[in-house]
Amino acid sequence: MKGKKKNTRLGLLTAVVIVVVAVTGSTPLAAQDGPTLYKTKCAMCHGADGKGETPMGKKLNIRDLGSPEVQKQTDAELTTIISKGKGKMPPFEGKLTAEQIGQVLAHIRELGKKK
C-alpha cells in the first residue's frame, strides 16, 4: 500500500509541474539550475557570456563577470551582491532561494573559467 501512495504522490507532483509549465510557459524556479536561472534572471543585462555587452550592460557600464576583478571576490561578497543588489542591479533576495543564488554564483564562477 505504501508504494501505491508514493506513486500517487509522485503522479500528483508531476501533474502540478506540468500545469505550472503549461500556465507559465516555463519550469518552476525551484526546478531550474544555475545556467537556466542566470539566463532568465541575469543575461538580459549581463549577457549570456557574462561580459555585459548588452544594450543595458553597456548603458550601466556592467563589469565582465568572468573578469579577474569579479572572480577575485569571495563567494560571500558575490552572494551579497546577488541577494541585496548593487547600484542599478536589483536584489534577488525573496525572488530566489539561497540555494538558487548559490547555483547562479556557481555559474558565474564557471564564466570565469572560460577566460
3D architecture notes:
By secondary structure, this protein is an all-alpha fold. The protein folds into 2 domains: 1-31; 32-113, Cytochrome c-like domain (Cytochrome Bc1 Complex, Chain D, domain 2, Orthogonal Bundle). Helix content is 62%, strand content 0%. The protein contains 7 helices and no strands. It has helices at residues 2-24, 34-41, 43-46, 55-60, 68-71, 75-84, 98-113. Helix 2 crosses helix 7 (98-113) and helix 6 (75-84) crosses helix 7 (98-113). The longest helix has 23 residues, at 2-24. The protein is globular.
Summarize the SSE layout with pairings.
Blueprint: H1 2-24, H2 34-41, H3 43-46, H4 55-60, H5 68-71, H6 75-84, H7 98-113
What are the defining features of this structure?
2 domains, mainly alpha, Cytochrome Bc1 Complex, Chain D, domain 2, about 120 residues, 7 helices
What is the helical fraction, as a range of percent? 55-70%
Tally of individual domains: 2
Low-confidence stretches: 10-25
Q: Average pLDDT, to the nearest integer?
A: 82
Q: How far is the N terminus from the C terminus?
A: 55 Å
Order of helices and strands: HHHHHHH
Radius of gyration over C-alpha positions, nearest whole angstrom:
17 Å
Give me the count of strands. 0
- From the coordinates shown, what is the CATH architecture of the largest domain? Orthogonal Bundle
Largest sheet: none
Quickly give the structural class.
Answer: mainly alpha
In short:
The chain has 115 residues and is mostly helical. It has 7 helices and no strands.
